[in-house]
């Protein structure tokens, strides 16, 4: 069942758990994630970056891969197909192609422009019953200077962004995409303040490499979606590398790609269990 993320995010916030967002890169990953979440009987958000969309062939291809797998594999859990860090144009293309949720990322623009663009995406998405995530502040990559106050989301800016009618918000609170250098420093106080001031379900990007207790704490502070990509990549690559090191004769692509399946599904299982309301 392919649906938007509106209600599941509200339910997660109110129920003190979080929905897993796993990034997909190809048909095989999509299948592994769907099968594991079906086995665990948990809803899932499949996140696709614009880079991954390009890699897989385009928005329509991605939407058809996901719809086809949901149908052919008898997937009955709620599944959301979500554009991750979309550009303005990308959001419209994804919606037209059949994505059920989009993130518009105007975080590197001046706040007014970010808000104006987000509002236009929301207006277009609303008619089609598509959920919208927005970002303010700047969730960076590991090499960026996290001591720079300016990249953290300000509570008053989050309140302004809420007025656009978005369904959930990704504030920048110290997490980064990719591998952390040392321990992440998340600003839980600000997270709680943004939750109280906006009432919106919050999204924690850069979910790989954050210690479990910090993730649970973030859920207590309003996080209702955790985005995970790098942990899946590392686990899958490890499995493939092990096979290639072990077996010099192997050449069947199904065996090579499939060698990462168990590792990837283990990450999915661990994250899903961590995000549940215990
Ligand atoms: P990681 O690659 O750090 O898990 O971050 C994923 C993410 O936030 C996608 O939006």
Care to describe what's here?
There is one protein chain. By secondary structure, the protein is of the alpha/beta class. It is 50% helix and 15% strand. The protein is globular and about 60 Å long. The chain starts with 5 loop residues before the first helix and ends with a helix. 45% of the residues are buried. The model has no long low-confidence stretch (mean pLDDT 95). 1,3-dihydroxyacetonephosphate (13P) binds next to strand 3, strand 8 and helix 10.
CATH second-level architecture: Alpha-Beta Barrel
Strand order of the largest sheet: 6-5-4-3-2-1-8-7
CATH topology: TIM Barrel
**Could you tell me how far the N terminus lies from the C terminus, measured between alpha carbons in angstroms?**
26 Å
Instruction: State the helicity in percent bands.
Output: 40-55%
- Distinct ligands, ions and cofactors found in the model: 1,3-dihydroxyacetonephosphate
Number of helices: 12
The structural domain count equals 1
Order of helices and strands: HEHEHHEHEHEHEHEHEHHH
What is the 3D shape?
Answer: globular
Strand content is 15-25%
CATH class division: Alpha Beta
Give the tags.
278 residues, alpha/beta, TIM Barrel, 50% helix, globular, binds 1,3-dihydroxyacetonephosphate
Architecture blueprint of SSEs:
Blueprint: H1 6-15, E1 19-23, H2 27-40, E2 44-49, H3 50-56, H4 59-72, E3 79-86, H5 88-97, E4 101-104, H6 111-127, E5 131-136, H7 155-162, E6 168-171, H8 188-198, E7 202-204, H9 212-220, E8 223-228, H10 230-246, H11 253-258, H12 261-275
The structure holds 1,3-dihydroxyacetonephosphate.
